Amino acid sequence: MSSQEAGLDLTDHGTEGGWEATAHGSAPLDGVRTAGFRDTAAVGLDLRVIPQPVVVVVIGLGGEQFAIETPAGSMALSSFVAAPAPGPIRVLGDQVECVEMRLSPRSAYGLLGVSTREFDGSPVSLDEVWGRPGQLLREQLADTPTWQQRLALTDEFLIRRADRAPAVTPEVAAAWQHIVTRRGRVRIGELAASCGWSRKRLWSRFSEQIGLTPKKAAMLVRFDHAARALRAGMNPIEVATACGYVDQPHLHRDMLAFAGCTPGVMARGQSPDDARPPSGAAATGM
């Protein structure tokens, strides 16, 4: 399973001391990672999540309501599904205790039972996706005392769903894997030709099953590598070249579109709010 399929953990996005995190020792299914998180010191959650090529399912266990801010507006949810989005998401919560599942778009198609294309880029309530089975899972997890048992219950739930879930077509799976392997540096026409489909047919099937158009998926995978490289200390010029952008302004435009900040802000690990200039000042960035 590639890093693109696995995604990042909550701890990679800025949760600090006072958090208990329990990762799963082994993935229950290909393209799936699960973990448990608890705010043991009541430090609160204020998590700014940049888009990634991964679908996130969060199940709150303590009756808490997550306040979720997106480019489209705000909402309060106790459990939710967040598909790859066109802009950054901010998640806030108090006394958080939750199970998080990170699904590759390829795996999410069957496990969710609905195309993430229907989410329109915004998180949705888990009850709308999994209905009563999801509610029962949340109740069981809340009544289970240890993280090991909770993650085992989650595994069993996902495996049962996978047994009767529809799989993506081989052509779509191959196209997604090619995008991941090439780090988003692909031509959509060549991608269609490689699987023996017309461009129109690939666009339709891929969008339905992965939840993004092939072009948007390639842009998101490329952006994800660029964001990781910037956080690792590479300068924007090097990142633009290494990640296949035409030039630095091209990287700048994609960074603004996906993350709402400049490459320079991303490299410093700041959020767009941290970097916002005082009222009346001119915004600058690399």
From TrEMBL:
It comes from the Bacteria. GO terms for molecular function: DNA-binding transcription factor activity; sequence-specific DNA binding. Transmembrane segments: none annotated. Coiled coil: none annotated. Residues 1-26 are annotated as: Disordered. Keywords: DNA-binding, Transcription, Transcription regulation. InterPro entries: AraC_XylS_family_regulators (IPR050204), HTH_AraC (IPR018060). It holds the Pfam family HTH_18. Residues 170-269 form the HTH araC/xylS-type domain. This is Helix-turn-helix domain-containing protein. It comes from Streptomyces triticagri.
